[in-house]
Amino acid sequence: MDNPVSEDSLFDTYKSLFNYNSEACFALNMRGEFLLVNPAAEILTGYSDKEFFHLSYEDLIEKQDRKVTIKKLEGLLNGDKDSVEVSIRNKQGEKIDLSIVAVPIFRAKRPMGIVGVAKDVTQQNYMEFLVKEQNKILKMIVDGTNYTTILDEIVSIVEKVAKDSHCSVMIADKEQNKLYTASSPKLPSEFATFINGIPIGPKSGSCGTAAYFKQRIIVSDIAVDPLWEDYRDEALAHGLKACWSTPVFDSFNNVIGCFAIYHSKPNTPNPKYIKLIEEATYLTSLVIQRSMAEEKIQHLAYHDELTGLPNRRFFEEKLKAAIADFQPANNNQHLALLFMDLDRFKFINDTLGHHVGDILLKQFAERLNKCIQKRETVSRQGGDEFTVLLRNVTEEEVRKKAKKIIQILSSPFLIDGHEIFITPSIGIAMYPKDSENNVTLIRNADIAMYEAKKEGRNNYQFYNEKFDFQSSDLFLLETELRKADISKHFKLHFQPIVDLKTNTATSAEALIRWQHPELGLISPEKFIKIAEDTGLIIPIGEWVLRKVCQELKARQERGLSPMNFSVNLSLRQFFDSSFVSTVASILTEEGINPAYITLEITESMTMDVEKATQILYQLKDLGVEISIDDFGTGYSSLQYLQKFPIDYLKIDKSFIQNIGENMDDCSIASTIIVMAHNLGLKVIAEGVETEEQVSVLKGMNCEKAQGYYYSKPLPLNELHLIESDLGSWL
Known about the structure:
Elements: H1 7-19, E1 24-29, E2 34-37, H2 39-45, H3 49-52, H4 57-60, H5 63-77, E3 82-89, E4 95-107, E5 110-120, H6 122-142, H7 147-161, E6 165-172, E7 178-183, H8 189-195, E8 198-199, H9 207-213, E9 217-219, H10 232-237, E10 242-249, E11 255-263, H11 271-302, H12 312-324, E12 334-342, H13 345-352, H14 354-370, E13 377-382, E14 385-393, H15 395-408, E15 413-415, E16 418-420, E17 424-431, H16 438-454, E18 459-462, H17 473-483, H18 486-489, E19 490-499, E20 504-516, E21 520-522, H19 524-534, H20 537-557, E22 564-568, H21 571-574, H22 579-590, E23 597-602, H23 609-622, E24 625-631, H24 638-641, E25 648-651, H25 653-656, H26 663-678, E26 682-685, H27 691-699, E27 704-705, H28 716-729
Parallel strand pairs: 17-18, 20-22, 22-23, 23-24, 24-25, 25-26, 26-27
Antiparallel strand pairs: 1-2, 1-5, 3-4, 4-5, 6-7, 6-11, 7-8, 9-10, 10-11, 12-14, 12-17, 13-14, 15-16, 19-20, 19-27, 20-21
Helix pairs in contact: 6-7, 6-11, 7-11, 11-26, 13-14, 17-19, 20-22
């Protein structure tokens, strides 16, 4: 059968395919000169067909692409079929990325030129570039890279896209009064120094004004813009003619910095650049918030959040160093450790409330600080306990210091209309007289403090060996703990952990209680440390895990839905050589699906990264889940979290308590949640007590929460009641 399509009509078909193609089509002769272009090519490049006929392909292609392109063309002329990625400049000088598919034109089997189709892949390449660079920045954040290095990288990314630009990142001070340069690698150093500390105000250049009005400020010509009146001469002297500034916000829409792009000629951003700046500003916000959170976490690692005083960890390190460096001028000089406790503080806390108690502790800390000299160290150990370290002092000088501390408390504290009188009990231990190591020195000062309480409070006592084990609460509890029948005198309560999306209790934390037959209910805070020190925590921990498994089985036998139970691990228990095998045995013997057990470790257990990693992987091999408890108050580094096979981070309640009104706490919580999600981890917020806290956490995409807002710890037989009630009242 004859083909009905004639040569003429076939030519018309090809011509239509060429002329009306939505992609740019072109034909070149053997010299690389344009023979034909379609309308799409004219639109893409901005050149008319007549202008094309005076151009060679080399006139359009970027210099760095010419060598490869020439080689490709030579291949095409030899009969190859090929594609090539090139970048060209349009008539307006803008860069366009093209993906070109081309074939040779033959006449009488001789190559006469090339015909091709060019697809604009600029946007595709640009988006791929942004995604790649964004992932690179996020990885640097997760890896714990120094924040200035990350900011430099963000600046570099923007400068690659926005040609002939100089970028800078400025960070606002805590009072949000000034901006300070954090990254400006290509900005002239003299100019960067000049604007460092620029005030945030309505006429403070581009950056200060953007931060003041909380909106993008585009100054296309610095020479004539009134915002630059006070800074114009310096900018122009360094060849800076335009500046686009965008404020950087935290999670609460507070300005924490500013991202700026400077140009060497008057310029206005196009939509592409505006989108680029938005992405850069978002990443900058993440970096600055992480840095702020890390600074606070680092500060909290060594300082008490409530009083601002150094904490126990800081004090112990200072005490160790003081002992190592101790060089007395004579035999009468010692190191002295004063351990003090505020008398009747619990009564004040219970009567007037924790709010008043917290203010009292802060005001006492302020008074205590005033009587401490430069080489002396004061700390809050926890609760209402404080310590003071005195260097190279005589016994008489120590007496004077103790009397001075008692005196500063003699005048009442005025809090919320209440006139509060409080007294201290102070125990004193001397190095090297009373001990030759820091641990025992603290213990002996603590024992002496209890002796001061026995003597009627509001006094001080020097340590004496006879105090050891005399009427000591610690000794009594240790004795009773050794005699306790774990299966009879201990019980478990469970605090629900609620899924914030479904408002259902999907898991619960097991909490141990000691019901002494004579002393009554004893809180874990009083006996867990003793159990740790004596090694009794090992059998107690085994009992807890076994009991949890048994309770799980009992729950299932009653036909209740499956629920995951969390078990807290102690430091000594975690590093016990037989711990993993013990867990494996209990799970097997009780016949429990390991997926319903979560083992909670503390950050302090992760300090030995290598050993902790080994143990955690062994536990994961058993099938249990792993959670890091009280995250944010210990020693963990985000870069180490990648090494650990963990499932959950539990944000410490100290960051949740004021999350609705404290911007720092909210920033820390938000940063932890973002970082956790980037690591593939889920987050549980502890200590949730208000509806406002729940609302904020939901807004941050936190997965789960626990606290008294939902329920106090309950016996197992009451746990199912709160499960059924949650959906009805939340």
